[in-house]
Amino acid sequence: MDGHVKRFTKTFSFKTPIIKVNSIPVRRDDGNEEDEHTPLAQVPPSSSKASSITVVEKDVYNLEPIVHTHGWKPETMQSPVLVSLALASLLIAALLEILAQKSAAEGALSIVPTADDISGLVSFAYLYLPTIVAVLYSLAWNWVDLDVKRMQPWLELSREGGATGRDSLFLDYPVDFVAFVPFKAAKRRHWAVFYSGTIVVFVFWLLTPMQGAVFGTAPVLSTHDVNMSYPLTLMDSSEQAAVLSQAVLNRGYAITWLNQEYPAFTTPEYTLRPFSPPAALAGDAANWTGTTVKYWTDLHCWPAQMQAPDREGPVETAFTDGRGCNATGIVPHACIPQAPVHKMMYIGYQGSAWADYSLRNPDCGAGAWNEFLATWAVYRNDTERATVRAAFCETSYWKQAVLATVSAATRRPVAGGIRPLAEPERLREAEFNSSAFQYLLGAGVSSVDMPRDLPFTTLLEHYSRLPNVSIEYPLSPMIGFALGYQNYTVDQYANLTIMAESFTSVHRMLFSVAYSHLLVNATTTPTAAEGQAFVAQYGIVVNRTFSALVEGFLGLVAVMSLMLLWVCRHSACKLTGEPSSLDALVRLARNSEELRGLFSRTGHMSDDELRLRLGGYRFRLHCGCPAGSATPTLSVVGRPDYDDQASKEELIQKDFNQPGYLAPVKPFVLRSASGAIFWVVIATALGVIIYMKKADAAFGGLLRPSTNREVNQILTNYLPTAFSTLVEPIWVLLNRFYCMLQPFYDLLDAKRQRETHKAMKSQYTALPPQLAFYRAIRARHLLLAAVCVTALLGNVLAVGLGALFNELPKHVTYHDRVFSPRYQTSIADAGIAAFVHKVESVYPSRYYDPFYVVMANMSYGTTLPAWSTPEFRFLPLDVEHAADDPTGTGFFTGETTGVGVDPGCRAVGVYKSDNTPVRIPMRYPNSRTEADGACARTYLPYPVLLNDTRYSMPEGRVAVETVDTVTEDYNSTVCDETLILGWSRSDVRNRTGAIQSSILACSPTLRMARFRVVFDAAGHVRAATPVSNYTSAWPYQNGTRATQPLVSVLNYSIRNRQSPWHNDTVARDWMNYLLVLQRGGDRSTLEATAPLPDAATLLPYVEAVYKLVFVAFLSLTPEVFAVAAPGAGAETGLQTVEETRIFVSTSAFVVCMAILGIYLVMAMVYYCVAVRLFLPRMPSTVGSMLSYIAPSSIATEEGPLRRAGRDALRFGRYTGHDGRAQIGINYADKTVPLDLKKLGHGDTRPSKLRWPRLGTSRKRLSTWL
Which of 58, 588, 950, 1118 has the lowest CB atom count within 10 Å? Predict the structure, then answer.
């Protein structure tokens, strides 16, 4: 036998770990044989490349040993890769769960004091890293998915019995839209593709977008374990009676009527023992939690039994509690016609000169010491009878060990922040002097009679707060509290349930206030107790909803990975190597003459036509071992029904009967219209992002679309990333098509004839298109490399879009807020009359409300009334359409009028005299008319007479204070506009002695201007800056006045003519008491033994107090100013609020702009330059590529493909081995190149087979290629 001879020695093994061939005899050209001992590579049985048969042969042309193993599958379908991906999925899910649990436990991750303190590394970790991980994860699955999809035809062909062409050779999963693949695969029962396709859908449109939405920034409360200290404790019970004075009621009055704040650690229902961390904490502490004691009081009320004679007029009534206490001689109503119809009384147990009645009497023993009687009566003039309701109430006092949470800023308990640690206990008398407290409530004064400052010796009256309530006087302080603290009308108190509820609330409020007055510094350091401080900070928060979804999908992906592995391991494959190149298909076609015959005359067909013709045939892939070949054989094992196939052939011939002609295929995604739409979408996205960046810069951030965090995460993180994962598959598909077409471009280009063998061996489709960059560069396919990079940039775009938007707190200013003044800048005559009437004549007692406001501000630091500062009262502004202020820290900026006074105080001098005071010369700076000459030119200080027998006169060093006006009675004249303050000293012996007086006079004038004020939603002014010159002209509504009635009325309220000589340091008037507070508790001005005060030194303190008192008067009497018409004088202003806004990250913006810009350029290049359509069908299926190869000479020859010159390969028209015209790949010397200029006109078939194009000659259309 002549020629080359091949002899094979084959070993079949299923168990042996090493397979070895002893020798391969080869007959050389000279006729001799020689043995070449070539060891076979060792293949472990567990290798994914191992199969049941391993063959070693020598290629007679290359004289090199060829080793092949059947059952070849890509590494991505093997256990190491798929198990690793499953483990990676579980690892990522576990890591997310750990971070989510840590975030939930600690409030956040990477906690810092403020959002500005978040480091760049942390920002990268939560903004970019999750998406980067997701993108790398998706790239890995994209590779697996591609290999599974392109291997599915070969797995089908390797099955016993083979598969039909439509279910194998003509499968085009790699170019199908990702979202549709799982459905198509499930319908065909291609489970490997179903699992991988489903996983890719999850990864592309669920995991990758949601990964960026898992993390976000938010304010959090971080917990610090600290030892809480207790700096204050209750004073000794024996000392409490003196402290339980009108000071408690005064503060309760400010809380009830003047909107003042509760003391620290106090609520309306209870109070807590104060506690605090021993040292300052880093950051702004939000809350403290510690063990402490809760204190409160309760009332138990029941109806009283009444006994009264049945007669008209005032009736003495006896009230019995049913427990042995009988209160007699009580008149519930005076029953006087035309008098107020209602009367209410609060009658305590203990008697006092300040109380009309008490329960204590021989018929009501000490067992009722903690009871009081509350009555309500109404007298009807028409019936001349009174209706009476009454109830006895028993008080009890309690304490309980609790775990409490309080606000670190306000020191007030947080709602719902109390957790009991023990059962409630009764508060013992040794701890709290409850009898002294109940005396205070019943009598309105302290049970201890001792010298006190004026505010604490005066019976608290509520008349000024009840001008429209028809109720009979005198009025117990507790009745005023009940009417003011609860929003009930007087008639509703006929309901004893309402009465009990109201008095219970008042008792609790006053008990809480009293407790704060009884606290003193602890003399011993108590044992510190463990507690927690919650510090307001900022951190990275894990969104539990998204993290749970991501973890669930990752777990599902892990399960499906293992199922995919199971399917891959149990799917037979007869391949011996990578089948993705044209060269591999050439070798496959050479082994089957029947296959070449079937694909004869098919090169010109479209995908549908080819599938219609050959889809019904059944093909099977056989191992080449029986034939001694390293290449498997693809054989036809079944044919379709003859009649059915004949009808299909007839249809094909009727539709396309000219094999030499073709209609270039134009896939939808490669059409110019699709390219234009794609370009517009990218340009729109680019424009939207640019617009958002400009809006971010212009408005200081973007408004959040929703207050729901999950919704915001979807809109700002999920959707942008989802957009990138929608764009990326399009680029991947465009890249995949280009990778398919690149070998054909090389075969078509005459300039690359020397490299056609590379085109036949190229394996671009064996990699994810975006990863074919390196191969494209090596092959000098620069445009393809650019497209690969563009597709790869889709992953970077996902990272950039995922981090594009970031939520951070920011103070945002709105410039279009409309402010409407509530009052005119004019003083109404009716307002002045109401003001004067309120101060002078309406009430049976003095009008002290403004002084209570000032005292609360100076003593306890409570805020001033709205629209007030220590120097000015501002006309309120109503804000229209204010933005929401969720944090409560926002403020407004607008212009309004501020009204204050310039006290005009001056030191008059020091005057000395013996026994009688000297007359002090007076002048009146506010004099405006000749009538002012009627004012007295001298003033005799009052009362400074040593021999005034109305007062007891101490011996020795004494002092007296003067706060007065020159007129004895009040008159609204210029004379009353000067307030005189004096401090006198004397050494008295038998009512005689030298008197030394220091005099100061104040002549206030108006001080008014326009201000730019910064105020909060409640009207509290934070800052005020004048924007106009000050004026002293009073803006009266009806012309000018010669007097300043507001000043004269204020002076009347301040003056005091009842201050005697004294040798103590008690303040007997409001001005001197407020001066003590203003000077930090310094009482030297009141101390008889201290040097005579210097008027010039006291002047700034006096002016500050006077300004504040004037502001308080105006604040409590807004009706002084004329009411403005709705909308009159409206002006625009600013609103500044702290909002969580969305900011466009500059770095992410640059990345997105660069990539989208590249997309725009590459889209134009791709559709205008790169893509040339000349194929009748895309080479996206095995059958389609076989159709270009099988009929040509390269499929019938043996040996390697020729490489250069006339032996190079070309794509074009040629005569096939059956003698008929074909379109496909053949040797260059046997191929007529395609004329792409003719293809530029589209379809080259004869005109009778299609509609002719306008402007195209019939002659050109009938030309054979």
Answer: 950
